[in-house]
């Protein structure tokens, strides 16, 4: 489903990836726990088309990750960045706006669905009326997860997705990922992610 073939990437004076190869099957869960600064986040950005490799090829469902294919590819990806940045406004209004985008309009969404997801993630009912500028890091990260779940894309790209959460919530999301039918690439140093049936990669240039 996803293939990095002989991919090299240099940013500034630093060689992040050198002849990197990785194949990820549909439904597989991969956790990248390589050291900081080794190119974990850049790997996700390459797949999203935010960066281009110096050499090598990246394929998604046999489509080359190239500008002309990015609209189709991104429609199947959900990306949770390390410092998720919601637009300013009340949470309920921000989520409503996101689901008015052309790519999301066909998805089932309602205030009740958002409230149900918020309760599952131990967010109080008042979270919908909070301004995104005033929520905590943990609330922001859980809302990012709520958005990810509501978008229901087949491939999840996660960049340090539990760094601001307490241990029970970390365990909740690790269990969710382990049991879901989605393809997942997760960059994280949290030890909770280093469990079966998740495939663990500790070195990107071995």
TrEMBL record:
Pfam families found in the cross-reference section: ABC_tran
Stretches assigned to the ABC transporter domain: 2-206
Signal sequence, start to end: none
Keyword RNA-binding: no
Keywords annotated in UniProt: ATP-binding, Nucleotide-binding
InterPro entries in the cross-refs: AAA+_ATPase, ABC_transporter-like_ATP-bd, ABC_transporter-like_CS, P-loop_NTPase
Keyword Transferase: no
Full protein name: Putative ABC transport system ATP-binding protein
Molecular functions per Gene Ontology: ATP binding; ATP hydrolysis activity
Highest taxon of the lineage: Bacteria
SUPFAM superfamilies: P-loop containing nucleoside triphosphate hydrolases (SSF52540)
